[in-house]
Model the fold of this input.
Amino acid sequence: MEAALENVLALTGEVSVFGLRALVNLFRRPFEGTQIRLQLAEIGSRSLPLVIASGFALGAVLTMHTRSTLVTFGATAWIPEVQALAFFVEIGPLVTGLLVAGRVGSGIGAVLSNMRATEQIDALEALSIDSFKFLVVPRIVACTLALPILTLFLDFSGFLGGFIAEYAASRLSFHLYVSRAFSGFQLSNFCAPTLKTAVFGFVIGTVSSFLGYTTNEGAQGVGRAATSSVVVSSLLIIVLDVLLIKLIFFVFPESAL
Amino acid sequence: MSGAPAVRFDQVSRSFGAKQVLRDVSFEVRDGEALCIVGRSGTGKSVTLKLIVSLLKPDLGKIWIGPDEITTLGESELSKVRRKLGFLFQDAALFDSHTLYENLKLPLERLTNKSPEEIDFEVDRVLRQVGLGNDRYKMPAELSGGMRKRAGLARALALEPRILLADEPASGLDRITSSEIDDLLLQQKTEHHTTLIIVTHDVRGARRVGDRVAVLDQGRLVAFGPVSEVEQSDNEVARELVRE
Done:
């Protein structure tokens, strides 16, 4: 037990130093604009279909479940508001974080560990190219920037899925659905939870890059790095979600509903 | 051979955990010379190359590249020294998400002030030199073993290094293809006066390309000199390793 705790603390320390090193390197020349754009396309654009489809399905299913409960109390008018609150405040950020951890985290872990195993990282260093700056920093930056944007897509696709499910059941107009959804909603309720996903993105990028970049187990390490990236990133996102909600309520008390 | 020292090892030792891979290794390679390092598997040959390019640091001893003692250099100075070196990795280590052209373009783009047209010309020139002029837009996965080696060599030569390090350039290749790679290495040595340090198991290639041979056994340098001298060495392993 003691040894396990020691390992967790050691890993946390190493990952934190790795993340800080990435932040420092971000502001050192040469700036990796091209690589950041490439990674944004890979991490952001290519995650969009998964994020939009998941959001839409989740929104529709959530509305159907909520409706069956609220109809018992004659409170179906609350469905749009419940839907909006659930998605924009919690489900959207958390589900996007977990989806991206699965799709992108495993990809980063596998790519970097494969590059390590096949000496591609050594080849970069031998060519006087800073492999950390070239490979790791753009991935972390791209994850950090992409997460809030992907979260917006999931929020709105979920909202649309919810509306379609509600329209199918009650023929509620879109205008009325929107006005009911956002009647008790402040911008502050929405901004902080969306922006917190930048932290999720930083964690996904840092953890999966760390596990891929530092592996030294050859081909066997590729699979392990991919799996560990998903598991560790997902766990950290769940833990951070709780901590960040407490922090958001403390810093922005008006955002508490 | 009477050139200035290109690479010098002075009592270099290196361990991985409890395993000592190199013990007190000292040798010198002169400008324009071709040194072939031979030895049984796991005797520290590839580690020697990685120490030269500073991918690894020695536990003890000093390493010079030209006038620079590299074990104490910081990253920026090291980067300048590495510009003198080209490295052909055992499996070529091509960037597998890049085309052949992009593999060669990357170092030229980042480490030189050449214009895009000059880079394009240079990539074309080097690819033609290794016989891959028509394959510039192929991905590494589309290349055969011999083509990958030649592509790796092209990338190592793109920055016109003064010292070329090659880790088993003949491994996994048939006799004819490995002979073609040897031809390219020899051409680089004779036409561009490039210093070659080649780790190899291919005795035939070592005899053909190498001016001198270094024999490593259990981390120690047990023989060093022209093949004709090593053949007469007191060390049985050395004699056996250079026998055709």
Q: What stands out?
A: Chain A has one domain: 35-255. The interface with chain B takes residues 30, 111, 114-115, 118-120, 122-130 of chain A (CB under 8 Å). Residues 99 and 153 of chain A are 13 Å apart (CA to CA). Residues 35-255 of chain A form one domain.
